[in-house]
C-alpha cells in the first residue's frame, strides 16, 4: 500500500495517490508550520481531497496568512493536482455560532466566520464547511433565521466561496440535526449558488437516521433528496460512530469499528452520486495521520465489491471485532443515560399528576 520511494529525486510520500478513481477520498490534515504543508500532508496519505483549519480552532484571532505562504499553497496544489475550488474543504472554528441570540457574541462569531471566508478566497479555495451552531436558550426558528441572515451577509462581503452547512448529531440545543433545519436555512439564503451541505455519517446516525444498512442508507438519501435536494450536496464527512443509533453523541470512530460497521462505507465507495465531491475522513488519529492513508486504501479496496463478497464479509467481521470492546462500553453509557432520562421523566410525570390532583381538590 505504501509508496517506498520516488523516482527522479521527487519527494517520496507514504501512500501512493490513486488518481484513476472518480472518488475524492481524503481526510482532515494538519497545517503546522505553514498552511502550505497541508498539501504535502494530503499527498502523504494518498488523498484526492483534504480538509484543514485555516487558523487555530482554539483562538478567536490568528495572524493573517502571509502572501508568500498563500502563493506557495496554490503552487503546491497545482503541482500535485488539487483543484483548489473543488478538492479542498476547510473546517470552520468550533467557536463560531452564527445563531447566537446574544447580539455581541453573534457579531464576534460573524467576524471570525467572515475572516475564514476571506482566507479561503486568498487561497482560491471554493468550499468552506462549518457547524450551524446552537440556539442556546433562544427560539429555534429565530435561530435559523439568524443563521441565514449571517450567511447572506457573508455572501455579500465575499466573491465566490461556497458556504457548506454540516448536519449535526442533535446534542443539546444544537441546530442542524434535522434535515428540515438545513432546508429552512437554505430557503432563506438569497444566493443559493453560494450554499451547500456536508453530510457527516456519524452525525446522521447519532441524530437517529439509521444509515448502517443498505435499506436505511437508501431511505436517508431519498429523504435528503426530497427535503434538501441533491444539487446542494457538496461534501461528505466519513466517520463511523462510537455511540449507538440516536444517542445524540458526536463520537467519531474508525471505519468498521463502530455501530455503523463497514456496510455503509462499501455503499458510499460504490455510489456514483457521491463521486467528484470531497469525501473526507475525520476518524480518530493519535498523532499519526498515516491511519488516514490506511483508511483511504480501505475505501479504494471496497470499490467494485458487493455486500455478499466473502472478502468484504471477512473484513467487516475483522474490524467489528477490533471495535467490540469500545462498543460494549459505549452501550453501557447509553443505557445508563436512557435510564436516568426515564427516571427524570417519570418523576416529572408524577409531579404533574400530583399538581393536577391538588388543583382538582381545590376546585
UniProtKB/TrEMBL annotation:
Report the cofactors: Zn(2+)
Its keywords, alphabetically, are: DNA damage, DNA repair, Hydrolase, Metal-binding, Zinc
Where do the record's region annotations for Disordered lie?
A: 324-348
- What GO molecular function annotations does the UniProt record carry, in alphabetical order? DNA binding; DNA-(apurinic or apyrimidinic site) endonuclease activity; phosphoric diester hydrolase activity; zinc ion binding
Q: Name the InterPro entries for this protein.
A: AP_endonuc_2 (IPR001719), AP_endonuc_F2_Zn_BS (IPR018246), Xyl_isomerase-like_sf (IPR036237), Xyl_isomerase-like_TIM-brl (IPR013022)
Q: Which PROSITE patterns match?
A: AP_NUCLEASE_F2_1 (PS00729), AP_NUCLEASE_F2_2 (PS00730), AP_NUCLEASE_F2_3 (PS00731), AP_NUCLEASE_F2_4 (PS51432)
Q: Where is the Xylose isomerase-like TIM barrel domain?
A: 42-299
Any one biological process term the GO annotation gives: base-excision repair
Question: Per the record, a Pfam family?
Answer: AP_endonuc_2
Q: Is the keyword Nucleus in the record?
A: no
Which ranges are annotated Basic residues under compositional bias? 334-348
This protein's GO cellular component annotations are: mitochondrion; nucleus
**Record family assignment:** Belongs to the AP endonuclease 2 family.
The identity of this protein, by name, is Apurinic-apyrimidinic endonuclease 1
User: Which classification does the entry list for the species?
Assistant: Eukaryota, Fungi, Dikarya, Ascomycota, Saccharomycotina
Q: Which gene encodes it?
A: Piso0_002407
Amino acid at each position: 500500500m505504501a509508496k517506498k520511494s520516488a523516482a527522479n529525486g521527487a519527494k517520496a510520500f507514504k501512500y501512493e495517490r490513486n488518481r484513476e478513481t472518480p472518488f475524492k477520498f481524503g481526510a482532515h490534515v494538519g497545517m503546522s508550520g505553514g498552511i502550505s504543508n497541508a498539501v504535502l500532508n494530503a499527498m502523504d496519505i494518498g488523498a484526492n481531497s483534504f480538509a484543514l483549519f485555516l487558523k487555530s480552532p482554539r483562538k478567536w484571532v490568528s495572524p493573517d496568512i502571509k502572501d508568500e505562504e498563500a502563493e506557495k499553497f496554490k503552487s503546491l496544489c497545482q503541482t500535485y493536482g488539487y483543484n483548489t475550488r473543488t478538492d479542498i474543504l476547510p473546517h470552520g472554528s468550533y467557536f463560531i455560532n452564527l445563531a447566537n441570540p446574544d447580539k455581541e457574541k453573534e457579531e464576534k462569531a460573524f467576524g471570525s466566520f467572515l475572516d475564514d471566508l476571506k482566507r479561503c478566497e486568498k487561497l482560491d479555495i471554493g468550499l468552506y464547511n462549518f457547524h450551524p451552531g446552537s440556539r442556546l436558550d433562544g427560539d429555534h426558528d429565530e435561530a435559523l433565521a439568524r443563521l441565514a441572515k449571517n450567511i447572506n451577509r457573508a455572501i455579500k462581503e465575499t466573491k465566490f466561496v461556497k458556504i457548506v452547512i454540516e448536519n449535526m448529531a442533535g446534542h443539546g440545543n444544537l441546530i442542524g440535526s434535522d434535515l428540515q433545519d438545513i432546508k429552512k436555512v437554505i430557503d432563506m439564503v438569497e444566493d443559493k449558488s453560494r450554499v451547500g451541505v456536508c453530510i457527516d455519517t456519524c452525525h446522521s446516525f447519532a441524530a437517529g437516521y439509521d444509515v448502517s444498512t443498505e435499506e436505511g442508507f437508501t431511505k436517508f438519501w431519498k429523504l435528503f433528496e426530497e427535503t434538501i435536494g441533491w444539487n446542494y450536496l457538496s461534501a461528505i464527512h466519513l466517520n463511523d460512530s462510537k455511540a449507538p443509533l440516536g444517542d445524540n453523541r458526536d463520537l467519531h470512530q474508525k471505519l468498521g469499528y463502530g455501530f455503523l460497521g463497514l456496510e455503509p462505507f462499501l455503499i458510499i465507495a460504490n455510489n456514483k452520486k457521491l463521486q467528484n465531491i470531497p469525501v473526507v475522513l475525520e476518524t480518530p488519529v493519535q498523532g499519526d495521520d498515516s491511519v488516514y492513508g490506511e483508511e483511504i486504501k480501505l475505501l479504494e479496496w471496497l470499490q467494485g465489491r458487493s455486500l455478499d463478497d466473502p472478502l468484504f464479509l471477512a473484513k467487516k467481521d475483522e474490524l467489528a471485532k477490533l471495535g467490540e470492546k469500545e462498543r460494549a462500553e459505549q452501550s453501557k453509557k447509553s443505557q445508563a443515560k436512557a435510564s436516568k432520562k426515564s427516571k427524570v421523566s417519570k418523576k416529572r410525570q408524577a409531579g404533574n399528576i400530583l399538581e393536577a390532583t391538588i388543583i382538582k381538590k381545590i376546585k
